[in-house]
Amino acid sequence: MVHDVGQASQAGHEISDAELASKAKRGNIDAFGELVERYKERAYMIALGFVGNPDDAMDLSQEAFVKAFKAIGSFKDGCDFYPWFYAVLRNTCFNFLRRRKTRKENSLDAAREYGFDVVDGAPDPSATLERKEMRALVRAQIDNLAPVHKEILLLRHYELLSYKQMAGVLGCPIGTVMSRLYAARQMLKVRLTRYMTDGGGSASEDDVGDGRGGR
Amino acid sequence: MACGRFKELMMASLDGEISAEDRAQLESHLAECADCRRELDELSELSELVGEIELPRPSQEDMMKYWPSVYAKIERGAGWGLLVIGVVVWVAYGVFLFITDPTTGSMTKFLIALPVVGALMLLVSVIRERVNTSKTERYKEVER
Q1: Amino acid B83: pLDDT
Q2: Cβ–Cβ of A135/B62 closer than 8 Å?
Q3: Chain A nearest C-alpha distance from B93 (Å)
């Protein structure tokens, strides 16, 4: 599932994304509907990666499309639609996560929503966790990372974007992509180690906040 | 030894994005730095685990309903917008007619305006309080 940012989703279509977006800008809602059809699943999966809950992911990804339609007047003709839409989706998800941060959500709840079998109680550090359980733990800890760190892992591991594509979507240099990936993986490792040794670490990562600090 | 730059190269190496020149530099650094070697091993294993995680895909049914649902939200938003604009314009027009009506005396206008303005103040106050409460409400997501 390698995406060439926007190109993969428009491959095989007669009309390009840019043409559809230009038509949508002139008030053609059917053209916008075609863009939604092209990117709906991808938008849903990204939102799911951000928020962890299928219902919220569905609502947020749809809300992002509604916002994109309202803001389509600011879309520059001839530009790639997907990076522009991704910025809208990202802001929608980040705002949601910021609001949710005030609620005390247990990371394990999120893991259970994925249908993982999560071991109850603090794990015995001497015991070797099964790989499936390790994946569930890793997923739960990813859910607790700062949005900007969660995002970079999402783009790399689930969207399978190259560094160049990630830089394009995020609007930052490749060096920033690399340093952010390092920070995210390092933070994830620290959180997992903490969890494995003392069963803690369920508090959310607060240091980066809304994700703008990592650029 | 300054390991900073090599952290980023370690990521590029993990993700198969490293150039031959950078790889040579990284390898010569790893040959000397046991900490970075260990960290690369750990992060490599962790990345493998992250890569194995699969997010559940949405159902076909949900995807079939997707665009109709987005369309309905766009339509509803436009409907609400028009409704609010219409009501505001009508109310403003009504107030204007009332104020400029020569057949109604000033005292009558004043006596009618008093409770109306009072009711509006109460309404605004309640709305403001509700908005502030919903911003700080910790238990709003709790199902009753």
Answers
A1: 95
A2: no
A3: 29
Burial pattern B77-109, b for ≥16 Cβ within 10 A else e, equals eeeeeeeeeeeeeeeeeeeeeeeeeeeeeeeee
ipTM: 0.71
Pull the structure tokens for residue A70: 């309202």
Domain closes at, from A49, A71, A100: A100
Residues A90 and A114 in one domain: no
pLDDT above 70 (res A174): yes
Query: With an 8 Å Cβ cutoff, are B53 and A44 in contact?
Result: no
Tokens 């992509």 correspond to A177
| A117 and A206 assigned to the same domain | yes
CATH of the domain at A210: 1.10.10.10
CA A200 to chain CA centroid, nearest Å: 25
Burial readout A42-51 (b: 16 or more C-beta within 10 A, e: otherwise): bbbbbbbbbb
CB distance A167 to A177 below 8 Å: yes
Number of structural domains found in chain A? 2
Instruction: Render pLDDT for A188-197 as a digit per residue (tens, 0 to 9).
Output: 999 998 888 8
Could you read off the pLDDT of A123-161 as tens digits, one per residue? 444 445 678 888 888 988 998 899 999 999 999 998 889
Q: Do A83 and A64 share a structural domain?
A: yes
Asked whether residue A94 falls in the same domain as residue A142, the answer is: no
Q: What values do phi and psi take at A33, rounded to 5?
A: -60, -40
Q: Nearest chain A Cα to B64, which residue?
A: A37
Domain edges within chain B: 4-52, 62-100, 104-137
* Residue from the list A70, A153, A162 with its beta carbon closest to the beta carbon of B50: A153
How confident is the model over B80-119, as pLDDT tens digits?
999 999 999 999 999 899 888 888 888 888 888 899 999 9
Interface of B with A in 103-132 (CB under 8 A): none
**Chain A residues near residue B42 by CB distance under 8 angstroms:** 189
